[in-house]
Amino acid sequence: xxxKPSLSFFACPPARVFAVGxxxxxxxxxxxxxxxxxxxxxxxxxxxxxxxxxxxAAGDLYGTTTAGGAANCGVVFELTPGSGGKWTETVLYSFxxxxxxxxxxxxxxxxxxxxxxxxxxxxxxxxxxxxxLIKGANGAWSYSIIHSFNSNEGLPNPDLTxxxxxxxxxxxxxxxxxxxxxxFELSPQPDGSWTERxxxxxxxxxxxxxPYAGVTLDSKGNLYGPTFYGVRGSGxxxxxxxxxxxxxxxxxxxxxxxxxxxxxxxxxxxxxxxxxxxxFQIGDGEVFQLSPxxxxxxxxxxxHTFTSGSDGAGPVxxxxxxSGGxxxxxxxxxxxxxxxxxxxxxxxxxxQANGAWKETILHQFESATDGSEPxxxxxxxxxxxxxxxxxxxxxxxxxxTIYEITP
Length: 407
Description:
This protein has one helix at 337-340; strands at 23-27, 29-32, 35-40, 54-55, 61-64, 75-81, 86-94, 104-111, 117-122, 128-135, 141-149, 155-156, 161-162, 168-173, 182-188, 194-201, 209-211, 216-217, 223-229, 240-245, 253-259, 268-269, 275-279, 286-291, 299-305, 313-321, 327-333, 345-351, 357-364, 379-380, 386-390, 401-405. It is mainly β.
């Protein structure tokens, strides 16, 4: 059995202080054809991002860092595009208190319909928070905790999912207690508070447990997610994929739709109802497709296996589709950059007429100039541009970068 992947290298925690309005104009600097660094992090405006990016309707990008800021405990930031390839970074919130507590922001932020932001803070003690940032009339953002997890619930995974009614869904993991994780729903109340409902508590009776990413919602209200532990006795103890279905009267029902291969990233659907995800292993990893059947487990197809060489190793984060059905993602390691060391790649997978998928490497990270070791996937805008973060590299001190890849 392989060790569980751990992508967390820096921890710095929450805070109760509002953003310091730090703003800096940053010039895009191309590192190779089609790729540009639009931000090199410094300690003041954040450092060591391990999360993906979100975007609002205006095309501004939002994300978090695990360090840097007013107290070197991480920030929530906004990047605004301007003319001539210039981007403006604004610190919306600077976390404080990491000398006393251990929670640090992680995971891609999500928006609600009013433009409020939500994210997760993780701790080393199997606890954490879900936080909310609300933009006021004066443009300032206010921070509040809408739910605190304790050791009975587990450590919240970074990815949240929202539905059209404003509810948030997520998972926790906890390997050494009476449970090893749960699936939860957070619902906003008229008085501004939030109510938690635990939809399912792991382990399942068949041994499936320890969810390692957030959940994906389908049009019928079912939730899908990966676990690190698989079905007991099936010979595939390397995790699995589950479906949670709401019932008219009673608890949600769990169905195992796939078992094995250590899936570790949030899943996505295509227009035909197939699920796509990745498995993480330092030496390789794969991208897979799950197709529904008339009954029983879904059919798995491996559409790409990484070799740790030129095409990277250790795919991270949630995949993304473009309008042509192509998939995009990033790898934490591998590639030809950095003398084939742990720098990572950005890749594209294109479906072919014969059912195969063709891989194209869009960028190989070189560390010093453009960053290294992305720990989350990519964001695709309406123009086909890709954006993402690297946790290291980029500049003298290697505090990480935000990059853009143009088609």
